[in-house]
Amino acid sequence: xxxxxxxxxxxxxxxxxxxxxxxxxxxxxxxxxxxxxxxxxxxxxxxxxxxxxxxxxxxxxxxxx
Length: 65
What we know:
The chain is mainly alpha-helical. 55% of the residues lie in helices and 0% in strands.
């Protein structure tokens, strides 16, 4: 399988997403809290690679639905 690299700016444009600026150290705190809560485990969110293969849309709003 060929890997595809997409820059953050391109993802933002493709998703029609708002750019959010976090205060210094906020992302580290969010990551630590998520790690402690184990919020991204497959048991919690499903296996993302499977979910992505099933997704036929092209926008973030479509994914959320």
